[in-house]
Amino acid sequence: MQFDVVVIGGGHAGIEAAWIAAQKKLAVLLVTNHIDLIGQMSCNPAIGGIAKGNIVREIDALGGLMGRAIDAFGIHFKMLNSSKGAAVWGNRAQADKQRYRNGIQKMLMAQKRICFLQGMVVALNTKGESIYSIIMDSGVEVRAKTVVLAMGTFLNGLCHIGLSSFAGGRCGEPPSCGLTKSIAELGIKSGRLKTGTPPRIDGRTVNFSKMQAQEGDAEPWPFSFATEHKLKNRAVCWITKTNSTTHAIIRDNLDRSPLYSGKIKSSGPKYCPSIEDKVIRFGDRGGHTLFLEPEGLDTSEMYLNGLSTSLPFDVQEKLVNSIAGLERAKIVRPGYAIEYDFFQPLQLKPTLESKKVKNLFFAGQINGTSGYEEAAGQGVLAGINAAQNALGEEGLMLSRDEAYIGVLIDDLTTKGTEEPYRMFTSRAEHRLLLRQDNCDERLLPKAYNKGYISRAFYQKRRKVWEKEKRELSHLAKTNIKPKAWNNSGPGSIKIPTRSSVLLKRPEVTIGRIYRAIKRKLPNRETCLRIEANIKYEGFIEIERAEYDKLKKLENQAIPFGFDFNEVAGLLNETKKKFLANKPATLKAALSIPGVTPADISVLMIHIAKEQKFKNVSRETVGL
User: Fold this and answer.
1) Spatial distance between the Cα atoms of 419 and 42, rounded to a whole number of angstroms
2) Superfamily of domain 554-620
3) Nearest-CA neighbor of 548 among 602, 611, 597, 612?
4) pTM to 2 decimals?
5) Which end of the chain is more exposed for a tag (fewer CB within 10 A), N or C?
6) Helices 66-73 & 12-22, crossing angle to 10 degrees?
7) Are the CB atoms for 12 and 97 separated by under 8 Å?
8) Tens digits of residue pLDDT in 14-33
9) Domain 2-196+339-449 has what CATH class?
């Protein structure tokens, strides 16, 4: 058995890696412990969200599957932050878990160049400095030009419910044992992380009258640029809250929590904490918002988003029943925590290839990330670069100003991580450029030039971009007279003013502009792109100038004894990191895990102000 690309793992990272590699007409093998569970959504069956939705669209623009799959099998669509600027919009969809999994499998199996093999990989073999083959638990050896490791939480996975522990890659499935040792023998360092999941509830036992309904959008936005069918909302999500009784139950049982009894020693996701952590860290809050979300159209099982816990089953029952609408609710599956091995991503190149072993790529949660979207984003890039290596062609790297995936990979490979990494818009200093609406313009040409996008689809999207450019050009040349403007809405003008200048005003909509110039309004996708480009134009110029300044000044010294506590605009968590590390330069400060370029910009401005103040003071006293 010999393949160009072997992908180990059938989760979201493995799916994208296998799919995209097959687009180059290579022989691809997807190895998984259970073929029927390829594409399983082991946590919340939802895709997207703030920043995460951008990643899904970037995956789509690179030729990946996730966007098409969620558009096909989503049952509740909602654009988060839609009342704010387009740069922070976050498309999110609840999926039918079973149909999503089955649909992904059907898509993969329709690709004849992908073969499947069920079993556990127990060892990797190298020849010289390069990967040579994988060894299965059955003793079968599979030779490979390139290998992508995407095992998720399965490496030496250990599940916890209360003080009881059992081996598992996820609840109900066996872990992968032995492979970590084989990888470590190649000189690649591993660590341990922890994540968790909430209890699932039987929807037939819920009193929805005590909860707030959360309907989907009337006109959902698709994730995939290829989607042409109209999306439909076929389910409702529900909102409720914890309360003082819930919190008391948790506090009274912390001695039975593996997190607080010392049983779990691994680092968990700081920005997606368990309910135990929320109650302890934010004890002054009267309640924490929970979302009760359906897992599918053909099941009564519901996901209690926001109540991740590893408390014992009897305690989970009590705390669930203390919540409004869940007084008589029955738990279908208890929440649990899971510890697993990961590999420090500092050992990777920006292509996600190992620095230690040639043609060996890492993607997904084994790189220390959290979330389906982050995993899939790594998977598609690792798959592209594995395919490029197998063909002897130049790889693909994405910079921080090109994609959220670029931000993700740069953070991982330059700073590493000590906790499960989750993407936020605040991590991206170029977020005004990295919008959902322009992912195709940013990334489709790159994917097309590498051979992962068809010519027909590329030409189709080019027509959209050309239409956008024509409209932008027309708005830049067309003046609107005061008579046609002043009675049409808020704000007035005294002289004829260019349409594009008026559209920069926050209160002005593109619809009002087109009515004033008596021109047919483009479709809503083009409208969104035009409006975002015009409204953000000045801010983008400032953003680029700040970034250029930062690059020039990154070797600037931070004054000895500088008080980071005095820097307004920094999170307390960031201040603590600066105080602990005491960086001597801005470049050293930026290398601290969790510190963003936006933090450095704030720090740089404060240092400049402080130095200017000191210089003025010295001049005042004649020094």
Assistant:
1) 20
2) GidA associated domain, C-terminal subdomain (1.10.150.570)
3) 597
4) 0.90
5) C
6) 120
7) no
8) 999 999 999 999 999 999 99
9) alpha beta
